[in-house]
Design a protein that fits this description.
This protein is mostly beta strands and 941 residues long. It has six helices and 51 strands.
């Protein structure tokens, strides 16, 4: 500093200081954090890497961004304070650093070097609490212990309080605005596709992380090029100590008189070896089966044949003729008694190259049901009414076993084998009293019918698959060969008796007594083989070539017997007109080409066409007739996914597919078990072709916890399946036959919004939806067009404070409108409302209370004048017990006000009906709940 005058230097310094002081109020006080992310080994810049800023006191996410194409990033408008910087990228070890941001500062972290996990002996360990929420690529990861819950809380309780995840009263999960279709445990399916076993059977304290992500299709994972087909998935990553011992849960509940509800779950893990078992027995409606399992439970005699997007035929099982109470699972109708149990085993060997898993499940459900159905049938200027009372007892049981074996032959090829088998029985006894009326007052009775049915049916099913996949050295070049088979067998023996009284001018005009035995045997066998080859055109696009063959064979043998007056032999005389022996075979060859393009994080789309030839053969052995015919089908398809930014995406899908008639629709035989509703097949029925369009939008912002999601669906069908109905106005009897019609279409859509408000736990939401259906049928030779509309929606409010209290309010208002061209003056219009108010709180002395209240308001109509409004109020009080609160004693009440009503209103074409039925009403339970565990020590089992 020698030789430099002091005064000019001091003057300059003072002036600069004054300028700085004056500028501070003008400039924004927020800080800026920037840097560049690079790879340590390849010395290249890493784009699309997540940089998150965490608050060290409670690990709350303050801000985040992604690096650009040159690896650079900049976090703007940051508040002052001390923070943790977390940099994360798939396949790389996480990077952590501390920063102290001062007001208005710009801190340059320089080059942040990322190291591949494969280059480390272990992941980098940082001696700081990890963030509560982390973003790794497309995965949102929640650290479970960062969200405080009371002891014994389930995984479902944990999911309810995670930002961006919602769980409804039925256990269905929505994550980042999309419906969750799979719940995995440590990356594997747990008891097949029933997610509630994991979410309601596992406790929250066993989970280390909850991961929400879009699971790519197997084909996209295999080829390495995204095909836009994704499944919203939640993975529950268990804590390491839970993989070295056992844990579980036991619930024992009873009112010591009429009601009981007991369940238990046991899990024993040792490294990658998992064993689990569960059991449920209850007469309070808890059967342990979700809707997916219900689809496969019981015995069905009808199968629908449809095509996949590649033109291959497949059969889809449906419900058989088990009477009006033929549902295979409990959906609230009747008084149930259920027993359910299952076991799960899985293991991996040889560095995860060999994977074996299996599940066994047993289900039994008994149900006593009573119901009343009142219906309106519009036939031009005439309106007929039917009043039906029914009683039914049914018992169903099923054993189901499935297994998966997968082996990685080398780094480029694998073999996967699956097998599944089930065996079930259904026994149903029902009685029905039906009255057909020509006016609401009931002064003009057309017919009175009393029916009695007894059906005993058995079902067997076995299916298997084999898949071999081979990658080649060029990325995207693959070859896969698959084979699938399915075999289903059904048989039933039923007694159908009815006393049929037909009236004229108020007095009985004729009587018909029906007493028949019906023996039914049906089977279905299907085989499919497919070859797929993909050839990359560039690093972002490929062509797929495929060829497949399908062979489907169905047979149906029905024998209808009546009592023989000559020999006096019970059910010894065959009724030829109601008996048949039918065969239906479809052989299909299909080939196609598809183009796919994928630009990660931006856009991917695909389009293509498959052409198939389907050769049909139907043979009526009793009628001694054979018919052969064929169709050439074109199957266009297109998919587009556009990622607007890192948080929003738009998807569009279109596909066209054929649907073949089922064997029950085409076999020329009448079903007269219900004299007021006689059905017969139509052997001239053609296949239908359906066009489906879907566009959806999804947006989720992590910091503000704002979600917007919506979709619009539209479909139209050529040669759609409908009915030709002949209705006898003097008796009320309907004879229906399936026919093909054109012009049918359906549309539906929804938009939902949810936003966190303030820094507390308040969340507000709003949802809207609509449905529209246009279909045609024939009534007494006249073409009839039917239009039905439903519009609805409502707000939602929730507020939650960790370990203290929470409240949820869901509302839904719906208007329903139905019109028929046969009588434009008759318009059915009514409102329904469904509102749910749930509350829970933690009180002193280790007490928790919970209240769940459901309000159902149903508007009366000129036809349905009965008051069916109800309030179903459930509540419970829990007292935690023992050290560490491992147990609790619960006092609960179901339907406190005793107003629960079984109710369903249905609009179908020109036919409108309202059904009420018995269901579980007010009951009290005392339940002991115990959560047990022994962790940290290997088990010798």
């Amino acid at each position: 500093m020698a030789g430099v005058p002091l005064f000019p230097m001091l003057k300059t310094t003072i002036l600069l200081a004054l300028v700085f002081i004056i500028s501070v109020p003008v400039l924004a006080q927020q800080a800026v954090l920037k840097g560049t992310v690079i790879d340590t080994s390849e010395k290249r810049n890493l784009s699309n890497t997540v940089i998150a800023l965490l608050r060290p006191a409670d690990s709350v996410l303050v801000s985040f961004t992604r690096s650009n194409t040159t690896g650079q990033f900049s976090l703007q408008k940051l508040p002052p304070g001390k923070f943790i910087v977390m940099v994360t990228r798939p396949a790389y070890a996480d990077y952590y650093d501390h920063v102290d941001l001062t007001p208005g500062a710009t801190i340059d972290l320089g080059k942040i070097s990322m190291t591949l996990k494969s280059q480390l002996l272990a992941e980098v360990v940082v001696q700081h609490k990890l963030g509560a929420i982390r973003i790794k690529g497309d995965t949102t990861e929640y650290i479970a212990d960062s969200f405080k819950l009371s002891a014994g809380a389930t995984v479902e309780d944990l999911l309810k309080i995670l930002p961006g995840i919602q769980v409804d009263k039925d256990g269905k999960i929505t994550a980042q605005g999309e419906a969750v279709q799979k719940v995995l445990v440590d990356g594997e399916e747990f008891f097949s596709d029933d997610p509630t076993i994991a979410t309601r059977g596992l406790t929250a304290d066993a989970v280390e992380k909850v991961q929400s992500f879009d699971k790519k299709s197997d084909q996209a994972t295999f080829t390495g090029i995204d095909d836009g087909q994704k499944t919203k998935t939640i993975n529950l990553q268990l804590k390491e100590d839970r993989k070295k011992g056992y844990f579980g849960k036991v619930e024992l509940g009873s009112d010591f008189n009429k009601y009981w509800s007991n369940n238990a779950m046991f899990n024993a893990f040792k490294g990658k070896r998992k064993f689990a078992a569960y059991g449920i027995m209850s007469n309070t409606g808890k059967t342990g089966l979700d809707w997916r399992e219900g689809m496969n439970y019981g015995s069905g005699n009808d199968m629908e044949m449809t095509t996949d997007d590649n033109g291959g035929m497949m059969f889809i099982g449906g419900g058989g003729n088990d009477g009006e109470f033929g549902n295979s699972d409990y959906w609230g109708e009747g008084l149930p008694k259920g027993w359910t149990g299952g076991m799960h085993y899985s293991n991996k060997w040889n560095n995860d190259k060999i994977h074996l898993s299996g599940n066994y499940q047993y289900n039994k459900l008994n149900s006593d049901a009573q119901g009343n159905t009142f219906s309106q049938n519009i036939i031009g200027d005439t309106i007929l009414y039917t009043n039906e009372f029914g009683n039914s007892f049914s018992t169903r049981d099923r054993n189901r076993l499935d297994a998966l074996y997968e082996v990685q032959l080398d780094s480029n090829s694998s073999i996967k084998v699956t097998a599944q088998g089930s065996r079930g029985n259904t026994f149903t006894q029902s009685t029905f009293h039906q009255e057909s009326l020509s006016n609401l007052e009931g002064s003009d009775t057309l017919s009175v019918i009393d029916r009695r049915t007894t059906v005993d049916g058995n079902n067997k099913n076995f299916n298997s698959s084999l898949l071999w996949r081979q990658k080649f050295n060029k990325k995207g070049r693959t070859l896969s060969i698959s084979a699938k088979q399915n075999y289903t067998e059904n048989d039933s023996k039923g007694i159908f008796a009815s006393d049929n009284n037909y009236y004229k001018h108020g007095v009985v005009d004729s009587i018909r007594i029906l007493d028949q035995q019906k023996l039914s045997e049906s089977s279905s066998s299907a085989f499919n083989a497919r070859v797929s080859y993909t050839e990359p055109l560039s690093k972002r696009s490929l062509l797929e070539f495929n060829y497949s063959i399908d062979n489907n064979h169905r047979l149906s043998h029905i024998t209808t017997l009546e009592k023989d007056a000559v020999t006096s032999k019970e059910y010894g005389k065959q009724i030829d007109s109601l008996s048949n022996d039918y065969r239906f075979t479809v052989f299909t060859q299909s080939g196609g080409i598809n183009y796919r393009y994928a630009r990660p994080k931006r856009i991917n789309y695909s389009f293509g066409m498959n052409i198939s030839n389907a050769a049909y053969m139907r043979k009526d052995l009793k009628g001694d007739s054979v018919a052969n015919y064929s169709f050439t089908n074109f199957f266009p398809q297109a998919n587009l996914t556009w990622t607007v930014n890192g948080n929003s995406s738009i998807r569009f899908n279109y596909n066209g597919a054929t649907q073949a008639p089922s064997i029950d629709q085409i076999q020329p035989i009448r079903d007269i078990t219900n004299q007021l509703n006689i059905r017969e097949g139509n052997p001239d029925l053609k296949q239908a072709f359906r066009h489906r369009f879907r566009i959806s939008y999804n947006s989720y912002k992590l910091l503000s916890e704002r979600s917007i999601w919506g979709a619009i669906n539209f479909s139209t069908t050529q040669h759609d399946f409908s009915t030709n109905n002949f209705i006898d106005l003097s008796t009320g009897r309907k004879i229906s036959q399936p026919v093909n019609v054109d012009g049918n279409y359906q549309s539906n859509g929804y938009v939902n919004f949810q936003q966190k408000v303030g820094k507390k736990g308040l969340r507000l939401g709003l949802g809207t939806n609509f449905n529209q259906n246009h279909n045609s049928n024939l009534i007494n030779g006249q073409a009839n067009e039917n239009n039905s509309y439903a519009y609805g929606g409502g707000p939602t409010v929730s507020y939650f404070i960790e370990k203290k209290w929470g409240v949820w309010l869901w509302t839904n208002f719906n208007q329903n409108i139905s019109k028929t061209s046969l009588n434009s003056s008759v318009v059915t219009r009514y409102w329904t409302q469904n509102h749910n108010l749930d509350f829970w709180a933690t009180l002193p002395w280790k007490i928790e209370i919970r209240s769940d209240c459901e309000f159902n308001l149903r508007q009366k109509t000129s036809v349905f004048e009965k008051n069916n409004n109800s309030i179903k109020w459930d509540g419970s009080i829990d007292r935690k017990l023992f050290r560490n609160d491992v147990a609790r004693l619960r006092f609960s009440v179901h339907d406190l006000l005793n107003q629960n009503i079984g109710f369903n209103r249905n609009i179908n074409s020109n036919f409108i009906s309202e059904r009420t039925y018995n269901t579980i009403k007010r009951n009290f339970l005392v339940t002991f709940i115990w959560n047990f565990s022994k962790n940290g020590k290997p088990m010798d089992w």
